[in-house]
């Protein structure tokens, strides 16, 4: 009798082990599914937060673009044009206050013609000058040049009188320290000539500058003064089709020491 029930007990025991293993496997599977689900939910929440932040950023950009578009759509308000201002090397601003002066200044620079009257402070007198865009340095008429020493430095004494302007004028004697010497070659065949260079205050229209001049005998030339590029570069415009644009300014400026 007992032998008959032994196989049944064995089958029941094996069935119970199988069910226990199946339940354990199912539990592990559910835990894995829950873990994956939690991970997916976390990633989804993070993505939603990033999308919300991007949407907020885009909304702010749209507001700024709308404000800029509104500002651009407004008609421009008329504004008074500022008067051109001369910004020279040592010169105060030149402001346009009348049409006559406006014709003498353009784009913040003084207009010069091919010929101009210049005022030399050292002798308180006007001289006719040629504005030469092809010359680098300026030149001054000098006759009877005498080089001498004063306080251990080289000085020069010369006569600036120019018969072309006033044949009856008395000699204009000028004394000035020599700044440097230059060598001038008149032609390829001649030996270079050594000439002194001095500094002198010169007034031309609204320009009042200390300028370097090479001393040379210009008594046979039309102009006792030649203005080179070093004088007017960056501060003036030259119109070779005009003459005496700045005119003869009657204001006498005291000599600058």
List descriptors.
257 residues, alpha+beta, Cathepsin D, subunit A, domain 1, 2 domains, six-stranded mixed barrel, three-stranded mixed β-sheet, 13 strands, 30% strand, elongated
What's the count of strands? 13
Order of helices and strands: HHEEEEEEEEEEEEHE
User: Radius of gyration, Cα only, in angstroms?
Assistant: 47 Å
Strand % is 25-35%
| Number of helical elements | 3
Q: How does CATH name the architecture of the largest domain? A: Beta Barrel
Strand order of the largest sheet: 3-4-12-5-11-10
Mean model confidence by pLDDT: 77
Query: What is the CATH superfamily label of the largest domain?
Result: Acid Proteases
What CATH first level of the largest domain would be assigned? Answer: Mainly Beta
Q: What is the SS-derived class?
A: alpha+beta
Unreliable sequence segments: 82-98
Estimate the helix proportion, in percent: 25-40%
Specify the overall morphology: elongated
Largest sheet: 6 strands, mixed, barrel
CATH fold title of the largest domain: Cathepsin D, subunit A, domain 1
Please give the domain count: 2
Termini Cα gap? 147 Å
